[in-house]
Amino acid sequence: MSSLSERRLPAPEARRGTDATDAPGAASEAAPAPADAAPSHSRNRQLAHATVAAAQSVLVERYRLASPDEAFALLRRASQTHNVKLHTLADALASSPPPPDGAAVWFPGRARHGSPPLPDLELDRHASTQHGAVLKAALHRALAVTGTSMGNLQLAEGGVLRMEKHAGLPRRFTDFFTFVDHATTSCSQAARRQCQVTVRDVATAPVFDEASRQVILDAGSRACHSVPLLTDGGRLAGIVSTHHARPLSDLPRAQYEALEKMGRTVGRWLSWHRRTLVLDALEHLHGAARAAVGA
Predict the structure, then answer these.
(1) What are the CA-CA distances from residue 47 to residues 37, 84, 91, 142 (Å)?
(2) Which of left, alpha, beta for 194 (phi over 0: left; psi -120 to 50: alpha)?
(3) Per-position DSSP letters for 58-85, written without gaps between them
(4) 203 contacts 222 by C-beta, under 8 angstroms
(5) What is the pLDDT of residue 61?
(6) Are 262 and 227 in contact, with CB atoms under 8 Å apart?
(7) Which residue among 3, 178, 195, 217 is least enclosed by CB atoms within 10 Å?
(8) Cα 109 to Cα 120: distance, rounded to the nearest angstrom
């Protein structure tokens, strides 16, 4: 039996799974990552800084600000005012179409909608619009469904998967996988294929490079399961992964369906957050930058 499987559940008649190593391109994806691909403190700092630095450059060029430091101060103020992570705001700024030249408002006529329901997450009414609370509840839901205490949630931003929440995992694991930008992990496989992926046995699965494999095994994980968080438009918003102390068989259908539902409801919520609260922060940033240069 292969140690890696994938599962799609777009409809009740979906088949129970295929070996991911039989999928197109799987052989090249299972190749070892470059030696310098292993995350480290310096690499994490570099990747985290790259997104913010790109946003600073956009602000300086677009608004003719005096310096990157002024741009950073504006980013930080908008982030704090709207309770949006600095990295998320920077990614949105760098990836969003610019406002029209001279426009006082970046997103005119924008419709606002309430947050979508999250019926299966343990959240009170006030927490249903809070980014951190929703992601924490999503991770806990995945852990409860799969019956484990180890897991992590990553957001897809700036072309990488960035660790946002984790539970039951040691510092070495969370440092190593702070950013994932190569194909030799189950989360990257789930992200690429936009379907659930089960690694039945970490010790033998061909998907991992040896450095990643050892970090996962040292964390006490012998199996893992990754679930994509997808928007209604099919965009990848993130990945939730659970880790298990013993090798796994395929999860029961009821668990797959519960995780599929959770992945889509949380993906829908993340899309709402991006289109609402993050755009609020961008609009604030636009106004503040114009004011800073007397526009």
Answers:
(1) 12, 19, 12, 28
(2) left
(3) HHHHHHT-S-HHHHHHHHHHHHHHHT--
(4) yes
(5) 97
(6) yes
(7) 217
(8) 33
SS3 267: helix
Amino acid at 126: H
Spatial neighbors of 18 by CB under 8 A, at least 6 apart, are 5, 6
Residue type, 79: S
C-alpha 292/C-alpha 136 separation (Å) is 37
- CB-based contacts of 144: which residues, under 8 Å, 6+ apart? none
The model's pLDDT over 14-26, given as tens digits with 9 standing for 90+, comes to 333 323 332 323 3
| 3 state SS of 248 | coil
| Greater model confidence, 5 or 109 | 109
The region, left, alpha or beta by phi > 0 then psi within -120 to 50, assigned to residue 2 is beta
Q: How far is CA 165 from the centre of its chain?
A: 10
Q: How far is CA 235 from CA 101, 231, 270, in A?
A: 29, 5, 11
Q: Output the CA–CA distances (angstroms, integers) from residue 99 to 64, 108, 282, in the order listed.
A: 15, 10, 10
* Ramachandran assignment for 230, one of left (phi > 0), alpha (psi -120 to 50 degrees), beta (any other): beta
pLDDT surpassing 50 at residue 10: no
Angle between helix axes 279-292 and 41-63 (nearest 10 degrees) is 60
Residue 87 has pLDDT above 50, yes or no: yes
* Distant-in-sequence, close-in-space partners of 204: CB < 8 Å, separation ≥ 6: 3
* 70-77 long-range contacts, CB within 8 A, separation 24+: 70/292, 71/289, 74/285, 74/288, 74/289, 74/292, 75/285, 77/288
Both structure tokens of 250? 């395929």
Distance CA 136, CA 69 (A): 32
Token duo for residue 80? 């704090």
